[in-house]
Structures are given as structure tokens and as C-alpha cells.
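Course assignment 3, question 2. Fill in each field.
Student: A.L.
Task: Predict the tertiary structure for the chain below.
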Amino acid sequence: MVDLEAYSLVEVNQYIKQVIAANFLDSIWVQAEISQIKESRGAYYLELVEKKEHSDEVIASTGAVIWYKSVLFIRNKLKDLAHQILKEGIHIQCKVKVEFHEKYGLKFSIEDIDPTFTFGQMEIKRQQTIERLSKEELLHRNQQITLPRVFQKIAVISSSKAAGLEDFMDQLHNNRYGYAFHTVLFESSVQGQNLEREMIQALDLASKQDVDSIVIIRGGGSKLDLSGFDSYLLAKHAALCSKPILTGIGHETDQTIIELVVNSPLKTPTAVANLIIDHNLLFEHSVLNLNERINGQMEKKMIRYHQEVMDLMISIRHHSRSITERNRLQLQNKIDGVRHKALSLCQTWMNKIEMRSEQIRINDPSNILKKGFSLTMQQGKPVKSIVELNKAEPLVTVFADGKVESEIKMVFKQCN
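Answer field:
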């Protein structure tokens, strides 16, 4: 068996240490993202990563440390920016001493941080995000949603510990007009690495609720504190939200990207509450004005209708008199016509009666008898023909001045 030349791990690491020491004599500037950071005994221990462009895939990583002496230097140089930059998810350009230890491996000792790089990277990423949203026609989508006529049910996305949340709630619920609002809080981080994920979840959940609008409250902070609101995914979810979104994030100068896509971005939580109250006040005024106009129109119409009724009553009174008089004349004419017809009819019947009476008088048997005629009767009935005679009964002959009773001896029938 052939003996292979082998090196111990320590020998290899010592060689690597020598190579690194020989090639990195001076400190160098490195650009990376802070993936993890924790403080211990005055020093900061970090995990630095580099991700594939437009992806979360990590393509390089290493550990780093800021020793206490360097911490003091950085804090003295950056002032309040120090605690804002030394956060997870922030891209930094740092001056590091590249070191390699046989036992602990590669380690960067951070000596300095350039804040201009961090802000520059944030601005570059911000402009890229805005351009992407513009190409996807998402910048004005939520702004096209009409605000409700009246705000009543409001979903509030914020942290229960956010400084501006209490200001918003107090201003909204204790308004001087006595407007009542129903608010539902959807808890979410308002800074840090969890902001994007939690706020997207809160947006998705709130948009499914029966609410008039969604309000996002932050309440002030530095540019780095608000950097989470420049997230592309968060801005996209806000743009595509089915409810109008109002924001009170609290930055006095620059707008975050989410403020560019929402319906109504305002500077402070109090300003959001005032907008909602003023919106409802404007609606109330419009209703009152409409009611006043309706009452005014009704009053005018009532006056006009009253006058029309009065004119109609006068006209009816006038026409009723004319109609009554005309009908009276028509009735009188009809009465006169009926009276005339009745008199004429009565006269006609009187004439007919007189003629009939004259005929009766002329045909009265007594008058006929006076002319020399006689009436033959048998058994109380006139005899008109010899065939009616009963020979056994006597005949009575009536004259104008008396009667004669006789017996029938013989009947002679006239032959034609």
C-alpha cells in the first residue's frame, strides 16, 4: 500500500491563515446584508450574507463581529443612525479586517460603517421598486377605489404598541361630533424583518372582512425604521387590495412606497382620523343641505299647489254656478217641454174622448128609439136575428116611450 501525503486540519487552517494574512494586510470595504445580529457584553455578533439579485437565495455568507472599541467608534460617528443601521435586513458597507482562526474559521472584524451606502442602496432599491410597480400598473390601482359615503367599520393594521395607534383611536372615537365608529385591530409589526410578512397577512385578512376601509398606522420614525414600507410585495398587496387604504405612517418628508400606492396617504395617525371625521362631516352637511333643499322645494310646491287649489276652487265655484244655471235652464226647458207634451197629449186624449162620447151618444139606443126605431128583446137580451127567437118565450118590444109584450104566432124568414 502506497503511503499518501496528508495534512492535519490544523496545518491546513494555519496555511489558510497565512494566505489570508499575506493577501489582506489592510482592512477592506465589504458590501453585505445583515442577516442576523445580537449584542453580548458590549460587542455585536453578525451574520453577513449576499443574496442573488431579485431573490432571497443566499449565495455567500460569513460571520462578523464588532468589538466594543469599534462599537464606541461607530456610535460616536453615526449617533442615532447607529442603532437604525445595525438591524437585520439592512444593507451595509463596512470596513473589515479579514481574519482567519484555526479553530473558529473565517471572521470579519468590523471597524467602520459607511451610512451613505446604506441610504444609497435603499434609494436605488426604492426607485427600482417604483419602476416595477409602474410597469405593472399598480401605482394608482387602489387610488381608483371610491371612498365610502360614510366611514363606519374600519380595519386598523398596526402594532398594539405603536406610538400613533393610541393617538388615532383617541382622535377618532372621541370626536366632537359624536360620530360612532367600529374599529377592528389587525396586529402587525410596523418595523423590522417581520413587517413585510405580518402586514401582508393582516392586509389579506382585513380585506376579507366587512369593513369600509383599511387604515395602516405607524406614527413616526427614521428613514431606516420605515424602510420595511418600501417592500415591493407589501406595496403590491396594498395596490391589489379590494378596500380603500389610508395610511398614517408619520414620515414628514419622504413618502414610503406603500404610501405611493394606497388610496389616501397622510402624514400622521391623527391626520387619518381627521380625514375620516371630516369625510363623514361633509356627508352629514350634504345630507342636511339636501334635506334643506327638499324642504325648500316642498314649501315652494306647497305654496304653488295651494294657489292652484284656490284658483281651482274659484274656478269650480264659478263654473259650478254656470253649470247649475245652464242645467237649471235645461231642466226648465225639459219641464216646459214635458208640460207642453203632457197638455198636448191630454188635449188629444180629450178630443178622442169627446169623439168617443159623441159616438156613444149617437149610438145610444134611447136616441135611436126616439127616431122611431124599436128594440126587440127576449129573456132580457136583444134579439138580432129570427134564428135567436124562442117561440115559447114572449117578446118585449121597447119603444122610446114604453114597452110592449107579445107572443110569437108565426115567424116569417126573409128570402134573398
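Instructor remarks: The chain has three domains: 9-118, 136-281, 369-406. DSSP finds ten helices and 14 strands in the chain.
Grade: pending
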